[in-house]
Design a protein that fits this description.
Strand content of chain C: under 5%
Order of helices and strands of chain C: HHHHHEHEHHHHHHHH
Number of domains of chain B: 3
Distance between the termini of chain B: 73 Å
Chains: A mainly alpha (about 375), B alpha/beta (about 525), C mainly alpha (about 325)
CATH topology of the largest domain in chain B: Rossmann fold
CATH class of the largest domain in chain B: Alpha Beta
CATH superfamily of the largest domain in chain B: P-loop containing nucleotide triphosphate hydrolases
Radius of gyration of chain B: 25 Å
Structural class of chain C: mainly alpha
Number of strands of chain C: 2
Strand order of the largest sheet of chain C: 1-2
Number of strands of chain B: 24
Radius of gyration of chain C: 20 Å
Largest sheet of chain B: 6 strands, mixed
Helix content of chain C: over 70%
Strand content of chain B: 25-35%
Helix content of chain B: 25-40%
Oligomer: heterotrimer
Chain lengths: ~375, ~525, ~325
């Protein structure tokens, strides 16, 4: 009973955070119209804001006619693929209290490595794609050893090292892309096309880019959840995050586990990058960090570091993203709206004291009820 | 304003303090201090001295009772208010900023200024002026991190004086000092007294109390045992008032049949970061089937001993072996694999992960075991079974094994710790303050279990500041004083409280031969 | 190739560019120093620089006054700092997460704002003109002395402010009562509050100052360095500043030396990029400043450990 009420409270709190964030977004949308080059009247501004909100909140799944937009759903699910992986990666690392932010770079490195495997290895269909992804994951796992070992051996902040590594990775990838692997026959910088054997195909060939990568992502949601909640290593990661002294006293290998959490994080992020590149594109053409790493942090915050909630959070963000881009296409409100909303969600969702007065009341009420119950029990 | 008897500069009337966790730290305590005296507040750890003084310094508010300063009723809602009433406190753990200079620490919050700048010269002047006036010599320009402990304490006293304190509370000021530093401090305190300052001196060291105080109030179990003139009271009387047991509860247990030595500690030495020798060539042995107790006032090396035995700290010398195998500097998983369990003194830091579930806290030492894993995965059924079994066997009051541990009461949290530590088939159990701060039911339960395990063949090393507990539970008993074993009693049944008190407070010390018996060599 | 490089490096022009490149990093690093001294890790410097850079630039365009533009950038920096403070101190959002949120605003939020306010995409392009850029100062006499002139003369007003700020921050921290409180709060908050210093108030002030410095760094970027705002302009300088703070042991002068090191790495990169023989290494060279940062951090961390060991040994011998 007590726990149910707290669950309800947490739900209400999350919903309130999201609503506030959307409200903040609405204010900015309104301002966009109010300040537009074309001078709208106040009424028109309101009307346009309503229209923009419709595109953002309902548009991704429903056409203007009110019909369900199946293609839209496919596209949202497709967009979930990379951010599900980075979300999972962040969950694992944050669970161990490791603020490693190199998910961003890992996605790029993973994508590039997978692309190279896809271009230059000769293999059978199916196996080829698997090898691409596995190599991408392995390379990124190795890369993450750097911040992890520096933290464990020298106490260097994994946060700062990982932030720097994002840029190093980006430039190294760009170097190899431009100097060694570019297809000079193309107008823009990109690699040669991947071998057909390495492509990750669409589940239903309809151009939605909803590839088998989505299935792999969902499998990894389950695997990561199992890893975190059903294996001794995930358990150690969580206990170290909860209380490092307790973990040490209990006989866990604290240093090794901290390294493990970041290596697993790198692996997942790298895999996400590989799958995204091999599924969505035919050549590698990223010229900057793709941003999925940071989105992964938002998702981990929304999912409270629990892998099981990652698909839900990823769906939410992918949905909003789609909504924002529709809004940008049809209403001329820039799609970067998503970052403003994400930032607001971030701030409120992670705020422990947000609505804490209400929680305090709940706790007091619960304690009182418990005391009454015990008193009654004694009488009986 | 309500007025009251003006004979006293501080008057605390009928003070009761109940903490949110239900512990009553003070019960109807009266505490009166005369102007210009050095008044001792005495009692064992947990007697309620610190709580009482925290209320006088505005860090805590009394649940019931009134406080008068110079006859005027006051509401001390924060240290700032207490300081305004002329009350200053020197905490046991110094409230200093290490990288700031002595002068900067002294004027922190009230710095002399020249425009927007700190008048640092003036700050040094103020420091030196007060230092001279009160005979408290400090180096105003030195950084606090570079000065010795004794000087840090003087800085703390100066901090209070500069802020206009007329009543000084010193919380166990000699606990961190060397003998020479203590002597110096006493000279300074008497100097202050002669200038009309009132000093409240918290301590449990008899010699010091006799040497420096005028009167004393003795607390035991949160209640006042009365006020006494120091010169009319013998050390034996004080010791009896302080250490005596309120209720002699007896634990039923058979005669121990100790056999082989399990834990052997030899010449263990440790000097802490303040250069105090916390363990001075400590040697003893614990045998299979017996409970060896360690009694003593806290801070005499017990905590350090336990830390060394579980590799939470490194000793400077000596050895410790379990069944002939070294355990010093060995990783905790290997110590545990040898069959050693520890109930840690600080259960919230080491004993549990509060955010974890009960189940997660119960399996932390055994999650690697074959029994709980199928290949790479946990065997959840076995784990649930294990946790339910332990919850049942150790009577943990909870909704389910998935409840967060931090939601439990103190007693039930301790039961979770105990359930884990007792159920790993230990051959040696180190129990450090196993029942501190928990309810009677849980206390009784844990004590019974401890006896049960020892009778079933485990060796138990019990550290407890609760005299009642340590005497009743132990088969034989050591007393720690000043980092050494000051007494060993082979049989606890005939121990009398008075003698115990004298050993605990350093009035008596057994001969080396008597003490060496605890090593069970030949 | 090496000699070509050397001849390029050993020029006054090169010295000048080191100073120019260092300034914005130095601003942000000083911001990091002040916040960290109060016990707050300001990872939001990057985003703060982006947002202040944009709004500062726009205000200077609207008012045709670079001074007002810089003031706006500072104001925005302070407000963002206080916002982080509010979420961290009042609502208990982890300071790292609050910083990441500000960085998100700096990333996409600025592009949104740019469109909303002046209907442009990605950069301010044609908006900036010479008269609203931060002016440069030629110091008479010195501008005739070789070498010295490139170090001391012909820089922008804010460049001088940046290096002067090192002194100002040092005075603030070590000579004013606010600085005393900041250091006390950061090192032992209990000690500070036990003598009536309000820990939260001091932290608000510190993170506000931190934001102000990031604002100056932003203004420098858009109103002098890049001569206009674009979305990739700050490029991790806020993060590098965090590293400079750590490497400089949290002291203003140390942070300046570390910032100069990064400035050197960046200037070197710019030079090498222009070399024909090295053209194919452009990207690798671009990663040098970041690699230098990591190496610097490692050296710092290792030396800290060694020092702690030595300290322990010394106290044991005592």
């Amino acid at each position: 009973m007590k726990d149910k009420r707290m669950t309800l409270f947490n739900f209400v709190r999350g919903a309130a955070a999201i609503l506030i964030s959307l409200a903040v977004g609405t204010v900015f949308i309104f301002l966009t119209f109010a300040l537009a080059e074309k001078h709208y009247t106040f009424g028109e501004c309101l009307e346009n804001t309503g229209e923009a909100l419709r595109y953002m909140l309902i548009g991704p799944l429903f056409k203007k006619t009110g019909d369900f937009n199946t293609m839209g759903l496919f596209q949202i699910l497709a967009a979930m693929i990379p951010i599900t992986f980075t979300g999972l990666a962040t969950c694992v690392m944050f669970s161990a209290n490791q603020f490693n932010l190199a998910g961003e770079g890992s996605v790029m490195a993973g994508g590039f490595v997978a692309a190279l495997c896809g271009i230059y290895l000769k293999m059978n269909t199916g196996l080829h794609a698997v090898v691409c992804i596995v190599v991408a994951a392995a390379v990124c796992a190795l890369i993450m050893l750097i911040p992890a070992l520096l933290k464990v051996k020298l106490g260097a902040s994994e946060m700062v090292t990982s932030l720097m590594m994002n840029y190093v990775i980006m430039y190294v990838v760009l170097h190899f892309l431009n100097v060694h692997f570019a297809d000079r026959s193309k107008g823009s910088t990109q690699t040669f096309p991947f071998a057909a054997t390495s492509k990750i195909g669409e589940i239903i060939p309809n151009g939605s880019k909803l590839t088998w990568g989505f299935v792999i992502a969902m499998v990894f949601v389950v695997l990561t959840a199992l890893f975190m909640y059903r294996t001794r290593w995930g358990y150690a990661i969580r206990m170290i995050g909860a209380n490092q002294s307790f973990a040490k006293y209990s006989g866990m290998k604290v240093g090794g586990t901290i390294v493990l959490s970041q290596v697993v994080g790198g692996m997942l992020a790298g895999m996400g990058g590989g799958i995204e590149v091999m599924g969505r594109f035919n050549t590698f053409l990223w010229k900057e960090l793709p941003g999925y790493g940071w989105t992964g942090v938002t998702i981990a915050i929304l999912a409270k570091n629990n892998p099981i909630f990652v698909p839900l959070a990823a769906f939410f963000i992918a949905y909003l993203n789609k909504g924002c881009s529709l809004m940008s296409t049809y209403c001329n409100v820039p799609s970067e709206m998503i970052d403003i909303i994400q930032a607001a969600i971030f701030l409120f969702f992670a705020a422990e004291q947000f609505l804490s007065g209400y929680r305090q009341k709940l706790v007091v009420k619960n304690t009182r009820a418990d005391l009454m119950k015990t008193a009654e029990g004694r009488k009986a | 304003m309500e007025k009251t008897n003006t004979e006293y500069v501080v008057q605390m009337k009928g003070i009761t303090k109940v903490y949110p966790n239900g512990i009553a730290a003070n019960q109807s305590v009266d505490f009166n201090v005369r102007e210009g005296e050095i008044h001792a507040l005495m009692g064992e750890n947990g007697a309620g001295k610190s709580t009482l003084m925290k209320m006088l310094f505005g860090l805590e508010q009394p649940t019931e009772g009134e406080i008068y300063v110079r006859g005027e009723k006051v509401h001390l809602t924060s240290p700032t208010v207490a300081i305004a009433h002329g009350i200053g406190m020197v905490h046991q753990h110094f409230m200093l900023v290490p990288s700031l200079t002595v002068a900067e620490n002294i004027v922190l919050g009230i710095p002399p200024r020249k425009g927007i700048f700190i008048d640092y010269k003036k700050a040094v002047e103020i420091t030196e002026e007060y230092a001279k006036k009160y005979n408290l010599h400090v180096d105003a320009n030195a950084k606090v991190m570079d000065i010795p402990v004794g000087m840090k304490q003087k800085v703390e006293i100066l901090k209070a004086l500069v802020r206009g304190a007329k009543i000084l509370i010193l919380d166990e000021p000699t606990a961190v000092l060397t003998t020479q530093e203590t002597a110096e401090l006493f000279k300074e305190l008497i100097h202050l007294k002669n200038q009309g300052y009132t000093i409240i001196f918290i301590s449990h060291k008899l010699k010091e109390i006799k040497e420096i105080t005028d009167r004393m109030t003795i607390l035991r179990g949160g209640k006042s045992m009365g006020v006494y003139d120091t010169k009319d009271t013998t050390e034996q009387e004080i010791s009896r008032l302080m250490v005596g047991r309120d209720v002699v509860l007896s634990v039923e247990k058979d005669q121990a049949q100790p056999t082989d030595v399990v834990l052997r500690v030899k010449d263990l030495e440790y000097t802490n970061e303040w250069n105090r020798k916390m363990l001075n060539k400590v040697s003893f042995a614990v045998r299979k089937g017996e409970i060896l107790g360690i009694a003593g006032v806290e801070g005499n090396g017990q905590a350090e001993l336990v830390e060394m035995l579980f590799n939470l700290n490194q000793p400077d010398g000596g050895t410790a072996e379990v069944n002939g195998k070294n355990i010093l500097g060995v990783d905790q998983d290997r110590i545990r694999a040898m069959g050693v369990s520890l109930i840690p003194e600080d259960r919230m830091t080491y004993g549990i992960a509060g955010d974890g579930t009960i189940e997660e806290n119960l399996i932390s030492d055994r999650c690697d075991k074959k029994k709980f894993n199928i290949g790479p995965l946990f065997n959840m059924r076995a784990i649930h079974q294990e946790s339910d079994r332990l919850i049942d066997e150790f009577d943990v009051l909870c909704k389910s094994n998935q409840q967060q541990v931090k939601m439990l009461s103190g007693g039930n949290i301790q039961k979770v710790v105990v359930a884990r530590e007792f159920s790993s088939d230990p051959i040696l159990i180190i129990a450090d303050q196993p029942t501190r701060g928990i309810d009677v039911g849980a206390t009784e339960f844990i004590r019974k279990k401890l006896v049960e395990l020892s009778r079933a063949g485990a060796a138990v090393l019990l550290v407890s500041a609760d005299l009642n507990e340590v005497i009743e539970l132990s088969d034989s008993l050591m007393v720690f004083y000043g980092g050494q074993i000051s007494a060993y009693f082979e049989d606890t049944s005939s121990i009398n409280d008075e003698i115990m008190g004298e050993y605990m407070l350093g009035l008596k010390h057994q001969s080396e031969e008597e003490i060496r018996r605890v090593c069970h060599e030949g | 190739m090496f000699s070509q490089l050397m001849s390029m490096v050993l020029t006054e022009d090169f010295l000048f560019s080191i100073i120019r490149i260092t300034a914005p990093i130095l601003f942000a690093a000083l911001g990091a120093v002040v916040a960290e001294k109060a016990g707050v890790t300001n990872i939001g410097l990057e985003g703060t620089m982006m947002i202040s850079a944009l709004l500062g630039m726009l205000v200077s365009y609207w008012t045709q006054s670079w001074v007002l533009g810089v003031l706006m950038a500072v104001l925005v920096g302070i407000l963002l700092g206080l916002m982080m403070g509010f979420f961290n101190l009042k609502l208990k959002t982890d300071i790292i997460l609050a910083g990441i949120a500000v960085n998100m605003l700096g990333g996409g939020g600025t592009i949104f704002l740019l469109n909303m306010l002046v209907h442009m995409k990605g950069n301010t392009g044609s908006l900036s003109s010479a008269n609203i850029l931060i002016p440069t100062i030629n110091i008479p006499l010195i501008d005739r002395i070789p070498v010295l002139r490139s170090l001391l003369s012909g820089h922008s007003v804010l460049t001088y402010v940046a290096f002067l700020s090192v002194l100002l921050v040092w005075i603030l921290l070590y000579r004013t009562s606010l600085g005393l409180n900041i250091r006390a709060v950061g090192e032992n908050a209990n000690a500070a509050s036990s003598v009536g210093v309000s820990v939260n108030k001091i932290r608000y002030i510190a993170i506000g100052i931190s934001g102000a410095f990031a604002g100056l760094g932003g203004a420098f970027m858009s109103m002098y360095y890049s001569q206009g705002w674009n979305s990739g302009m700050v490029a991790g300088r806020g993060f590098i500043a965090l590293a400079a703070q750590a490497m400089g042991r949290g002291e203003p002068v140390g942070a300046m030396l570390s910032s100069l090191l990064f400035g050197l790495a960046q200037a070197l990169k710019n030079k090498v990029t222009g070399l024909t023989g090295l053209a194919s290494y452009n990207y690798l060279v671009a990663s040098i400043p970041y690699i230098v940062t990591i190496v610097g951090l490692v050296i710092y961390a290792a030396s800290t450990i060694r020092r702690a060991k030595r300290h322990r040994k010394a106290s044991e011998e005592k």
